[in-house]
Amino acid sequence: YGVDKRGYCTWINQKALDMLGFTQAEALGQDQHALFHYKKHTHQEYPVSECPIHLTLHDRQSREVQDYFVHKNGTLFPIMPTVAPITDGGAIIIFRDITEKLQNDRR
Q1: Helical H runs in 1-107?
Q2: d(C-alpha 60, C-alpha 89), whole Å
Q3: What's the pLDDT score for residue 48?
Q4: Which residues contact 24 (CB under 8 A, 6 or more apart)?
Q5: pLDDT tens-digit map of 51-88
Q6: With contact defined as beta carbons under 8 Å apart, do 99 and 78 qualify?
Q7: Which of 33, 34, 76 is nearest to 51 (CA)?
Q8: Which of 18, 96, 97, 105 is the residue whose CA sits 20 to 30 A from 75?
Q9: pLDDT digits (tens, 9 = 90+) for 14-57
Q10: Residues near 85 by beta carbon (within 8 Å), at least 6 away in sequence
């Protein structure tokens, strides 16, 4: 998906919507952090100042870190996002659900 320089969702593909449980109408134009990135894996509030997407929007550096997104139903799932700045001041975020990988690593 993509965000503008404020972190608001400008586009999102269907696979991301399916993984997050939202519709396109629910996601577009919304603050992605407030919508599905507001909790840490400990279920504590995730300060926007620590968000890798927010950090990329400010320092224009690409990032790839293990993190968590919040499904619409409130459950957390582990992701590996790549966040890259784009020329209009926004960013593009490519992420994959790494639940299965983490489960296999624990075995």
Answers
A1: 14-20, 24-27, 32-36, 52-59, 99-106
A2: 8
A3: 93
A4: 12, 14, 17
A5: 999 999 999 999 999 999 999 999 999 999 999 999 99
A6: yes
A7: 33
A8: 105
A9: 999 999 999 999 999 999 999 999 999 888 999 999 999 999 99
A10: 56, 57, 60, 61, 62, 91
In the structure encoding, which two tokens stand for residue 39, read together?
A: 């909790």
Residue with tokens 């926004």: 90
* pLDDT at residue 104 in the model: 84
Residue type at position 39: K
In this structure, how many other beta carbons lie within 10 angstroms of the beta carbon of residue 34?
11
Which pLDDT score is estimated for 55?
A: 97
